[in-house]
Design a protein that fits this description.
alpha+beta; Peptide Deformylase; 5-stranded antiparallel sheet; two-stranded antiparallel sheet; 3 helices; 7 strands; globular; binds nickel (II) ion
């Protein structure tokens, strides 16, 4: 396993639409292992492959609370089958937009279909932080960042702030 570099805005790769995975094989599992290690090291709770520059429809996530055992989860080719009309706000952040947090409103519950680490098809309902996180990560697969849900002014301010931080580092 290896820790990869996480791309940050305004890197144009983050706007790219990722391609479906054809097969869950050892090479893909090695990618998922690297993604998980990179996410834990950041630290973060979710990561899409494009955030390390790989345009594949793959997400890793771990929503375990502090003090709990790790609960790594893997989503290959995730799709949303259903989303609730009811929405919920949540203060989101993103490893590709470091140190910026803002409220995004999304469907409160979704039904998902994806393949897991073993390549098995899964259908599952998500709510709460799981629903927020999977929708945020699935946006990445279509080149959408959480700041794209904000006003243009807030989005431009966020990118400017990240650029300034990068220059100072
Ligand atoms: Ni993100």
């Amino acid at each position: 396993m290896a820790i990869r570099e996480i791309l940050v805005v305004p890197n144009p790769a983050l706007k790219q639409v990722s391609a479906p995975v054809e097969q869950v094989d050892d090479a893909l599992r090695a990618l998922m292992d690297d993604m998980l290690e990179t996410m834990y090291a950041a630290p973060g709770i979710g990561l899409a492959a494009i955030q390390i520059g790989v345009p594949k429809r793959v997400i890793v996530m771990d929503l375990a609370r502090e003090g709990e055992d790790q609960q790594p989860r893997y989503f290959v080719n995730p799709e949303i089958l259903w989303a609730s009309d009811e929405t919920a706000p949540y203060e989101e952040g993103c490893l590709s937009v470091p140190d910026i947090y803002d409220e995004v409103e999304r469907p409160a519950r979704v039904r998902l279909r994806y393949m897991n680490y073993a390549g098995e098809p899964i259908e599952e309902d998500a709510e709460g932080i799981f629903a927020v996180c999977i929708q945020h990560e699935m946006d990445h697969l279509d080149g959408v960042l959480f700041i794209d849900h904000l006003s243009r002014l807030k989005r431009e301010q966020a990118i400017k702030k990240v650029k300034k931080q990068a220059k100072a580092a």
